[in-house]
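Archive entry: two folds, one per protein. Generate the first.
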Amino acid sequence: MVDFGRASENSNSFRTLSTTAVRGADTVMLNASLAYVFADPVGRVDSGVTSYISNARLLLESRNVRVFVVVREEREPFGAYRERLAMQVEKIKTAVLKVVVEAPESDAVTTEIPKNAADIHIRLHGSRQLGALVQGLPLNKNWLALEQREISRASMLSSPSKSAIDFSKQLYKIPDRISLYPNPAPTWEASTPDKDRKKYVLFIGRPQQLKGVQWAFEMARQMPDIPFTLAVPAPRKQRFKNIPSNVQLVDGVRATKDKLFMNASLVVVPSLHETASMVGIEALAAGVPLVTWGHLGIVEYAAAPFVTAVEPYKFDDFIEMVRATHSLCRRYPSATPKLNSLFLQGINTTLASGKCDYMPEKARDCTTEQVRLITRKSIEVAMASKQNLPRWRRKLRKLIRNPSLFYKDSWLGQVIIAPGAKISESKFGNTKPQEPRLFSLISGTEEITFSEPPEKPEGLITAFLYSEDSEEDARQIIMGLNGFDDFRCVCHPMLQIGVFRDFRDDGVIQLINRIDLRNKNKISSIDHIILLDPPPSLVEALRSCGTRQRTVVILSRNDAHMPNPWHTDVLIVVGKKNLNVSSSIWRRKIVVNSCADLPVAIRRAIQEGLGKSPDMLLPLLGFDGDYREELLGINTCYYKGIIKSPLNNISATGPMDDIYTKLALNVTDIAVAESIYLRYRSLCDQIEDVEIRKQFLAFSLYDGVIFDVRT
């Protein structure tokens, strides 16, 4: 057996696997003329994929299978890893007749492997894009396309649960020929619990809301009489805030796992999503009962009382079940022999025919609508959760804002790849994408806060805010925006995501008062604020709190509230028959046929409002005859246009509306800079109309545009 790349690091977490546990299982259809290669693009001790490969490798080797593991190095770009994986597969191919490469769907790491070099086996461990989906984060269209291509061209497909298939179908087209069989389990050596130690509730996982760490802390707070042990990577207490007294933090990477499980009364897996949960499988291997959400894949591995499923996301029911299970403090026989036997049968059948179902428990039928409902609930939970890990969040914010500086100062390993990341430096991208975060959550009557925008951004910063009722439309829009590789200000990390939920309209002044000075300054650093079907008062409040940002309002529904034209720089309307806006005058209005056209319309709205170089003057009205020198002789850095009128004493007294009317009626010539024309194009194209001309003058002066008025 040969390892290419960094060896697996979890030898200190697992005992040596006994071969006696799998005797009697079906013979795996591998022999000396065939090699089995595992691609590990994660390579972290705390990763479920790495743990799965470690268990599967030991199990297959116990059946005399030639196994190779190609691990992605800690700092290795994905493009380089894909190429290295393909090279190693070709080297192995020279020594055997056939090679099978098993890889997760995430990151599309098999893209460089030629079709004739190996049989590709894709196993649905849960894409990073799927993790983003259930947290309401934007998706990366380019990565999704690559992953779909590898799923489609794979000669073998398998999944560790039906739940993994159901949720993956929200992102991919999954062929019917997919096999179902469980992930293998470790075999623990005989171990006895510590007699002098009180049984605790055990949580193992990274301190992320995707893993439900916020629930673990909250459970401990609500059950102060029950001890909790949280095994997380590098658990320095200063990273956490307000740790309950009944919580013990241990290093989940360095700890001996069998001891952790043997001293636990039960294990909790409160993740937003898990295709199988290696922590849950390890608990079953140790005979420790498990409490989890009913939509996670681990519920297909054993039934109650081994695995107790709670309807997502009824937290009170979860707490009650944890208390009841802890009070029983029972131990059950290890599930390792059964799971490992089913794994061997599953991989054997997959290699032979390509389709099987060897899951220990039958999964409940879940419609697409039910899956979407659970996903929507997951997004609500992710957005509402307030992590009590301030130092960790500061580190993560530093990573998002300035990745190069972060990696110079410290290295935490490869973070979850987030959607909307820039692809550069190679065919498939050598830049590590970074994780976006929620820019703002506006709800109820609470104080309105905003995240810190990126420091020293390369270009513009754009915020996209939408109602939770429009979550599906917003997701499609964000996916479309992430496809503009040449216009990065509408992609991550320049695109800041915000949500308004249960919005209470107390008036513009009340909304402004809910934003303190520090958060007003954050809004001022945003160049464009895009709002999908927003309340009009929110548009006015956000525009009033800043100094330079432009608002782009999208009305995707006929029943959407019409915003105030004075506070709307660009209006985008879906549907040419939308009557809400037909009678109003707008600086710039763009009408599209469907929501699918919105990403392009948003790009137009932002791009047309940018500065031009050179910013030439364009005649809109008059300027007959020889006007070349007059137009070329003006400095557009100061004056943005020329207005000619025979009146030399337009009264500065009286209502402004009367002044605008008098000026509009007496204007003979108008020329504006190209940037102004594009910004007010809807008005400039109809400038001959006196009413439109009056509104153009009013809007432009309201926005601080300076004209050279000549008589």
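Generate the second and append.
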Amino acid sequence: MRVILSLAIAVVALPASAQVVPPAPYTGTAKGVVFDDENRNGKRDQGERGIGGVRVSNMRDVVKTDRNGNWQLGHNDDTMFFVVKPRGWMTPVDEHKVPRFYYNHKPSGSPKLRHAGVAPTGPLPESIDFPLTKVKESDKFTALFFGDTQPRDLREVDYLARDIIEPLIGNPDGGAFGVTLGDVVFDDLSVTEPLVRTIGMIGIPWYYVLGNHDINYDATDDRFSDEHWERVFGPSYYSFDYGPTHFVVLDNVVWTSAANAADQKQGYKAGLGAAQLEWLKQDLAHVPANQLVVLCMHIPMTEIQDRAQLFEIIEQRPYCLSVSAHTHMQEHRFITTKDGWKKPEPHHHVINVTTCGSWWTGAPGPLGVPHTTMRDGAPHGYSLFKFDGNQYSIEFRAARRPASYQMNIYAPESLKVAEARGTMVYVNVFGGSDKSKVEMSLGDGKWRSMLRALEIDPEFKKAADREAKLEKPYRPLSGPAISTHLWKLPLSGYDKPGVYPIHVRTTDMFGQVFVSTRSIRIE
């Protein structure tokens, strides 16, 4: 029997243990072939050659195929095998553009859970064959990154469709692929597949990262917390190449179960575990030092309990970027020695804007979708990551707004002459960081440097107070948080009545320049 992948439904009973158990020993050896699927039918036909030098993993070990595409790996009765997509090749995708690059060997199926896992897969196939097809991949490409999509029901899937997905149908941003950085849904896993169908309308391959709201909450320990995930998406951690860049998807959600969660928020903690760290070490051993590595995870890197071990693996790589979501804010963190990072140059970690913003809350906009402004005052949306060799840049994109919408300028609509001097102007630069330069011109052509303000966005605070008693189906905004991309400067020089422009110019860490203007009336 030769197979490619297996997706199905759970049937057996959960064990009573609430312990996090390490992987079981291997009980046998699996083998297969990675092959050139010339006719793209998903099976190896006569004359379709094997492909040498392709990495294959069982989520513990990583091996390369021989010159004829053959591979062998150990297995037990709960083993996920996957191929690491190499540059210039593509794995199959399903009708909703979810990559199918794995085979789940689970002879007895998943434990019985509220949200179904994998059906019994039966005996190990005699050959597990992975099809690849040739594609062109440039050194320069763009990827779309979504923070938490997190719909709690089908109504919120519709919010996502109206506000985020519809403008992206046809791929106007030119994305080679997309990534959702966890919290794909909000606890109700029955929403997962409608959500996947919705994102699939964009029309490009889409990869998914496991979040703390994507797990089986009735699982008694971490081993069985991702059974539904395995049925829908496959492995909870894996890697792939696109162009000259190596992408690694990590599972940094450790489920501790509700019964053992007295000291853990929602029964989980942020961690990777010894098995995943060993896999990562083996995975990166096949990646040259001059190749950019992008680590994709849900919970920010600085919250991972075993981050010191992760740092040891990536510290010596000169080109490494990491991306997360989870906090419902946009932030650039630069991890330094005070965080346990031992390399002199800081590590760049991006906490990506969420597509659900503040969990789909706030007053409705023109389309009936909540404005759902994030807690740091930035709008909900997504990011464009642009890659060129081992370099990258990032652009913020606000939902249903033009690419030029990169900031909000807060100033009074009108002031009297006597009040103008010293009145504070605030600017929220959505994709800004402590490496951004932000300047203000009061219409006189002179640019003045603005001061970074680690404060609450003043307009978000007003909106949260104003909307505190919203009625169903809408919900009030969540509480505000300190913004890391807010700047301020007092007005000066307005000593005559009139209408004047306030110009703000920002230059980000990538050299990208954005300018915005608003007016103020002096009475």
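Annotation attached to the second fold: Residues 1-20, 261-265 have pLDDT under 50 and may be disordered. The longest helix spans residues 154-165.
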